[in-house]
User: Fold Peroxiredoxin from Tardiphaga alba.
Amino acid sequence: MTQPSLTDVDWSKIPAPEDDGAAVHLVGMAIPSLSLRATDDTTVDLSELKGRTVVFGYPRTGEPGKIGLTDDWDMIPGARGCTTQACSFRDLFSELKAAGAKQVFGLSTQSNAYQTEMAARLHLPFPVLSDEKLELTDALNLPTMDVADLTLIKRLALIIDNGTISHVFYPVFPPDRNAGDVLEWLKANPV
Assistant:
C-alpha cells in the first residue's frame, strides 16, 4: 500500500487504540542505565539526565511514497500517525522547552540509520533514540505490538524527572495532538 501523505490524515477513519493497561506500571519507575544511539550521533543514557525529559515513543515512521509495512497498517489501532506525532513535537519544541522540558527525544525500535534520515527529512530539532535491540523496551516492559515479525513500541509519551517516570500519556490518539497534550501537562505541572 502506498501512502500518498504521511501527514494529512482523516483520524475519523483510523481506529483509535484502547487503553489496555500496558503502561500503568510505568509511573514511579526508575529509568535503567542504558545507552541508546541518537540521531545527533551521540549515545544517550536517559537515567543520567538531570531535570525534566520528554520522550515520545511510536511504532515506526514511514517514508513518503513507499509501501507500508503491511497492507492493513492504517487499520491497526495506534499504528498510523508516527510522522504526524513527530512533526507536532517539532512544531511545539520551543514551547515544550519554555514549559520546562530540558530535553525532548523521540523513541522507536527503528535503526539509527533510518531514524537519522527521517530526522533530517522532517527537520526535527531534537534527537530520536533507537531501541533497535529492545533494551529499554524490555527493561521498562513498554507496551508493544508485533507486526510483520517486528516488535514495535505502542505510541506513548513519558515525562521523566531526574531519571524517574513521573507521568505517562497512553494510549495516544490522535497522534498529532500528543505534543499539545504534553505541553498542557507541563504548564499545569511545573518543575
Residues 25-188 form a domain with the Glutaredoxin fold (CATH 3.40.30.10). The first helix runs from residue 82 to 91. The first strand starts at residue 36 and ends at 38.
